[in-house]
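DEPOSITED CHAIN:
***
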Amino acid sequence: MDKKPVGVPLQEGMELLGLDKSGFYYYVNKKKIKSYTDQSPALYDYQDIMVIREQRLQRLQRQKAKKMPIEIPLKTSRVYRVLPEDMVDLAPVIEQIFDTRPDIERWSSWIRKNPDVGYMVKSEGKIVGCGFILPLTEEKILDILSKEITPPTLADDILEYKPEVPVYLYARTIGVLQNEAISIRQRRHWASVLVRHIADVVIDLGARGIVIEKIYGRSDSEEGAHLMAGMGFTQIRTVTSHKNFLIDVKSSGLEMVLRYEQALNEWRHRHGGE
């Protein structure tokens, strides 16, 4: 077995530490690297150099570890249709997200009138977000958008879906928990899952022969506005402090709308162009 050399020349020592001459001599002058000047050219202690090399590598790894964020695996999530009995558990989550508590009985009555209006995101068995898409008359929606204090929506205002009967949709209460203890990455994941599902709901309405004229939305928070923008809504003028949004299905080129129209056309083809 070859023995490790006792000393190495200056150039080799510099290469082992990745240092220039001044950096190498820093350790020599600090007496952390023993020099053998009785030889020509001078040699430098190999073991000392390797100790410093290891120290420098460990210090570099610690610095990288501090800069590198810990990648925590995302919690899985699924979207479920909200049932009337779910409102008891969903109400406190809505209050936490939007700082207002819904009328449980009134909201439950919407779902009993039309079971396809509410959706909730669950992660590890807990509700972490929700979204409601209400079929209303355009007159009712415009009345809501024009008021500073949102007027109540009653079960009688909720329309039932019928093939080839035009409807206007009102997107509301769309959001996920914003607790600081939850990572931004996790919150964004929940939001993307919710937005994708709402898009699938719209497309499915086309597959059922439901004619959507326009989709309106309203938000009074930056998070809500961000979600609306993520779904492709255009912000429209408002006379209140709230932000209003619109997707005009007839003129929109959004992928969601194009897929909705394709699904609707396929439904019409199957039903003889009714």
Observations:
- The first helix runs from residue 10 to 17.
- The two ends are 90 Å apart (CA to CA).
- The first strand starts at residue 7 and ends at 9.
- Residues 7-67 form one domain.
